[in-house]
Amino acid sequence: MAITWILNRKWLKASFVALVRACFMFGFLSFLSGCSTTPEETLTPVKAPERQDLMDVGALSSISAEFSAPVNEEEALQKALNEEQSGNLEKALYAYIQALDFNAKNAETFYQIGRIHTIRGNPDIAFKAYNEALVIDPDLMMAHADLGVISMDKRQYRDARLHLEKAIELDQQRLAELEVKQVMGAFLVPNRESPARVYNAIAILEDVENNHQQAREYFRLILELQPHSAILITNLGYSYYLTGELTMAEKYLKSALREDTRFDRAWTNLGLVYVRKGFYKRALSAFEQTMSPADALNDLGYFLMLEGKYEKAIALFERAIDMSPSYFEQAQKNLRRAKAEISDEFQHAGF
Questions:
Q1: Distance of CA 22 to the CA centre of its chain
Q2: What burial class does residue 279 get, using C-beta atoms within 10 Å of its C-beta: 0-12 exposed, 13-18 middle, 19+ buried?
Q3: Lesser CB count within 10 Å: N end or C end of the chain?
């Protein structure tokens, strides 16, 4: 019996050691394995970051108890990168904001926070983060780039120009330091590290402010980098449309459609070119590529009405009404307006 008890005791001791080892190895999964953990084995609780003003309403929705607090800035930034690569933007944002608790003077961290807010559709918070980045590093090119684009979206054209031009200046300085570079006019041709959206945005701004030659220079510059971009080619075509150079506009818009036959804006702009040229059947066909036949008739009628061709517009509105009763209200409004314009013309003529 004594021998049996000794053997059993040895067996129990060995089993206990194995159990302890198992509990240690799987401490983080204790809620599944049933092993109890010591305080040293538990995850560090999530600590709310100090910069709550850089968070949005949904930022905490996916932060669970398993999302441990980082121990330093490097760990927080790595966690943010890993989460973003996994598609978890909320967790990535949270980790970037946590990184500020360790280093509130990292301009790049502020930029990343702004960038994620831009992706998530929070331009006001993004605007704040970008500006804080620029307070720390006034020459942070990408912060200027994104602020310029946000300002364009808000139609704050003065601020947009300041940031866009600064971003281009910084990019041109970077390009000038490269061994291999290509010159086009007064600029160096951008490369893959250049903020392409900035060159496109400044070109659009130049068109908005009627500086069309300058706009086209920017469009051609970035097209050297992205020669098959239907968006850029369409924008260049529309620039020519704005100055009434319809042949050039048609050329570029058709070129854009060769790159992407489903690009709606190219079809719409091409329709506008045909309206201006008086090719109404072609215009209607172009509009029908992006909308229903009734919508196309109504839109063509609307553009003809704007050009003072009221009788043709009335005929198109009536066709739209006959074709689609569900479109009756809008077409009827346009029809009444066109008839009123004709009536006013007769009154002014003394009839």
A1: 49
A2: middle
A3: N
Nearest to 185 by CA among 218, 163, 215, 228: 218
Q: Is the pTM here over 0.90, yes or no?
A: no
Choose among 188, 129, 124: nearest CA to 154. Answer: 124
Question: Tens of pLDDT along 180-190?
Answer: 999 999 999 99
| Integer angstrom CA distances of residue 97 from 56, 87, 139 | 11, 17, 22
Q: 285-321: per-residue pLDDT in tens?
A: 999 999 999 999 999 999 999 999 999 999 999 998 8
Locus of tokens 């240690």: 24
Assigned token pair, 153:
């979206």
Residue 187 bridge partners (DSSP):
184
Cα separation, 245 vs 242, whole angstroms:
8
Question: Quick one: pLDDT band at residue 68, thresholds 50, 70, 90?
Answer: confident
Calpha distance 117→109 (Å, rounded): 13
Residue entry with tokens 């330091």: 177
What are the pLDDT digits (tens) for 236-250? 999 999 999 999 999
Question: Which spans in 120-245 are helix H?
Answer: 123-136, 141-153, 157-176, 196-208, 212-223, 230-242
Task: Give the amino acid at 56.
Answer: D
Contacts of 175 (CB under 8 A, 6+ apart): 181, 188, 189, 190, 191, 194
